Amino acid sequence: QKEVEQNSGPLSVPEGAIASLNCTYSDRGSQSFFWYRQYSGKSPELIMFIYSNGDKEDGRFTAQLNKASQYVSLLIRDSQPSDSATYLCAVRDTDKLIFGTGTRLQVFP
Amino acid sequence: DADVTQTPRNRITKTGKRIMLECSQTKGHDRMYWYRQDPGLGLRLIYYSFDVKDINKGEISDGYSVSRQAQAKFSLSLESAIPNQTALYFCATSDAYGYTFGSGTRLTVV
Prior knowledge:
The complex is a heterodimer.
Chain A: E1 4-5, E2 11-14, E3 19-25, E4 33-38, E5 45-50, E6 54-58, E7 61-66, E8 71-76, E9 85-93, E10 96-99, E11 103-108
Parallel strand pairs in A: 2-11
Antiparallel strand pairs in A: 1-3, 3-8, 4-5, 4-9, 6-7, 7-8, 9-10, 9-11
Chain B: E1 4-7, E2 10-13, E3 19-25, E4 31-38, E5 42-51, E6 54-57, E7 65-70, E8 73-78, E9 87-95, E10 98-101, E11 105-109
């Protein structure tokens, strides 16, 4: 059974700080990785995806992938209270996604 | 209009009743999925379909069935609902860049 692990949190950071969210996965052959944001009671929204080792930046978000260590992380710069949500890491397994249980992020003013 | 539409948004049903959750999409994707979400357990795959002739079981298909009526429509049925099927259900479509989720159906079985 392929697994995706995330710390459930909550991760609490002050407004303006960098939030660092981490995810590890069990299948060394995994190629595609996704970060979703989910507000309470709402559907997940795609933030970004990453395929290659290294960093990928999109606005305040940076995804980092290290295939050798089997982890992927999401950095949120200049965190805002509106970033408070659960962040889901997902790994593609052939043609479906396997999700972690999510990390709850709280950004306090 | 939303790209992926789920109906109903909320439903309360009694144990033993049959219930159908419906999903339609305008994204033109072939691939459609049904997930359920429970607190602390994340999103778990129930069924998925890659085209109208293709149905595949996910990790938690017992107690559920699906029908792919057209490329744009994928419905999930609970033949005889039980209380531990109380959850938030999401339909999703996908392309190479990830999933698009519907707004979800909150189902309560009493």
